[in-house]
Amino acid sequence: MARAIYDxxxxxxxxxxxxxDLFTKELKKAIKRLLPFEIEELRIWLLEFTAxxxxxxxxxxxxxS
Length: 65
Known about the structure:
Layout: H1 2-15, H2 20-33, H3 36-49, H4 57-64
Helix pairs in contact: 1-2, 2-4
């Protein structure tokens, strides 16, 4: 079940990546729902996903806090 939430989170983040505020809001919700090791996997995925989307770099600060 937990894996399904992780995959769902990635899908949602891809769909809302056009809007920085919405992306940040969904990322915050994901951090509350995911397990610690899934958050680490998500961080790695986000670094790859946002490599060509500099407007989303601000959202990555959420993972560091």
